[in-house]
Amino acid sequence: MNEGEKKEDNGSDWRELLKNSKKKMEGKNRHPKGRFRFSFWYLILAVGLLFAFNMMFSPRENDQTIPYSEFKALITNGSIKEVHYSGSSLVGYPQVIGGLRNGLQSIFQRTANDGSSDSWKSERIANDPTLIPLMDENEVVYKALPEPNNYLLDLLLRIIVPVVLMLFIWRFIARRMGGIGGSNVMSFGQNNAKIVAENDLVTRFKDVAGCDEAKDELIEIVDFLRSPTKYTSIGGKIPKGVLLVGSPGTGKTLLARAVAGEAGVTFFRMSGADFVEMFVGVGAARVRDLFKQAREKAPCIIFIDELDAIGKSRAASISTNDEREQTLNQLLVEMDGFDSTSGVIILAATNRPEVLDPALLRPGRFDRQVAVDKPDQIGREAILRIHSVGVKLEEGLDLSDVAKATAGLAGADLANIVNEAALLAVRFGREKVSRDDFLEAIEKAAIGLQKKNKLLNPHEREVTAYHETGHALVNVFTPNQYLVKKITIVPRGYGVMGYMLPVPEEERYFQTKEELIGRIDVTLGGRAAEEIIYGTMSTGAGNDIAQATDIARSMVTRFGMSEKFTNVSLDKRPALYLGSDSYGQGREHAEETQSFIDEEITRIIGDSYRRVLTLLKRHRSLLDEIMVRLLDRETVERDELMELIKSNKLGNQDLETRQKADLKPSEKARSSGDARNEAIRERMAERRNAEEEASRKAAEEEEAQSGMEQEAAEIE
């Protein structure tokens, strides 16, 4: 690139334009007037000045205090011609003062005679009956004066001190409430965003895994911040806003921090709930203040977590002037007024995109929506590798096996499992984390804490063993079901007396009608075993019945798998990332249709239960044999279970029948699918190696830079 092209690029760089505009504004406002900030020292200074003013201008008397006996003697010999009463004080004057003069003038009255004293002062003895007759006898003028008041002191004690005390009490209460205190008692209109400086952001894209497509979308934004001319030269513009949507724990906040860390810009982090307060208009004021600060610190990134707290659709709002709507309106105005060259990018995250206002999602505000889904097996393995850095792992430990056992878990769940595995290894006295520690951590996170020391009723323990054995046998003999990993009657969590744990062998994203019916069969296996052995039912199958009912209801209402309403959805669409329980189940069909739904659910579950009873009666010997093994060892792993089944002639025959009935891909689908998956694994491995190499080089450069700075400091 020649010099002319470089100069043109620098002129078109929005960062250079932004710096020039900031310099111009600083030149115009070089000495801006600062805002007044209240300080306690100002109050102390005001009180001191008030007392000084009071001392300077309060009336002073130039009187001599004499004994009371001498005061009466002066009246007797005629030296005192007028006496003023003021409380218990007596003031005598050598001449009669004119009546038109007030008390304050009389105090400062001076005589033009010789240097004798102006007045005499004494304290009257109470209940002296001789004073007034004495003054009458000597024709002395006497009168009573009101006691002199210090009006400035009264003002201080009666008005200023109570008001100041009330202000301090209000400030203390506001701070304890946590909303509007701070250093300025009127600061509740300021935003509560946490500003993270460039040097404090240590998260990079190498610390994010399991969402490579979402990461690629955000890498493009970082590249734009670093070299905008590459995009502006062909007319491209940076997205004003990027909305990250996904289930809880999938890494939306982590991705936002990685974007800020890679771009090397200031990062404003704020939750949607921080905009909402009890005072009307506070949310809108905080939005304005947030964007004002962001423009001053541009280029920067604003990250708003849980956007649905303020961005809910206004269509469902009854009031048209509530606080949330005002805040949303201000946010819409600020985002619409953003210039793409301002250097401010909005990142937001939510797990409820379906409730957001359409005006917020339109292009021009959030130009790009990035889905952050739960990771697949390769992604889970990569996440486990990232969180296992610094953890001493046992030699030969294959994290891919651990990743297979964690299907459906998000990145936050995997981070917790790695930490739990390390803690379990320490608890059991091991120096390195083993595969068993990881598997135990997975079960602990999914089901609950193991309770090996819990006392159990022998009959209930036997019922539990039959119950879990029934689940396992139905699972083994039902086609297209995840094979059981282990059976145990060791209690866990709250009310879990035992469980049968199936583990998926591969990723699957949809199920056939036969697979769903098979899942219902497996859930009913425990109650069917109890009825076969004891001829009755127990409450231990309550959770199983609920699961079977939910599956059957989904088949009829959501998936259109009923005979009468084939390919018809009878239920509201559930939330995309929070599951079907996030909304109220509103009914959108007639009473007759609801009656059919209930009858169809009952029919599906009834057919499954009869089928399961027949299956377990056929394998009654296996049911008893596995139950005895469970009572002896409390846990039966897959290999041991399959060995028991294969040793039974009827069991081995039904197992082979099940394996033949399992859904299998065609040869063409298998060959092309295996080739595609292998290519993806190789590509992801190359990408991971490239990221590790780039991270290593960056660390070496940073170490070399710090070494050079240290040498320069030593030379100085």
Describe the structure.
The structure is a single chain. The protein is built from 25 helices and 14 strands. The chain is an alpha/beta fold and 716 residues long. Strands 6-8-9-10-7-11 form a 6-stranded mixed sheet, with helices on one face. Strands 1-4-3-2-5 form a 5-stranded mixed sheet, with no helix packed on it. Strands 13-12-14 form a 3-stranded antiparallel sheet.
Shape: elongated
Q: Largest beta sheet, briefly? A: 6 strands, mixed
CATH topology of the largest domain: Methane Monooxygenase Hydroxylase, Chain G, domain 1
Termini Cα gap: 39 Å
Strand content: 5-15%
Strand tally is 14
Helices, strands, pairings?
Elements: H1 3-12, H2 14-28, H3 40-57, E1 64-65, H4 68-76, E2 82-86, E3 89-93, H5 103-107, E4 120-123, H6 131-137, E5 141-144, H7 151-177, E6 194-196, H8 212-226, H9 229-232, E7 241-246, H10 252-263, E8 266-271, H11 282-296, E9 300-305, H12 323-336, E10 344-350, H13 358-361, E11 368-372, H14 377-387, H15 399-404, H16 411-427, H17 435-446, H18 458-477, E12 484-488, E13 499-502, H19 513-534, H20 542-557, H21 591-618, H22 620-633, E14 635-637, H23 638-647, H24 649-661, H25 667-715
Parallel strand pairs: 1-4, 2-5, 7-10, 7-11, 8-9, 9-10
Antiparallel strand pairs: 2-3, 3-4, 6-8, 12-13, 12-14
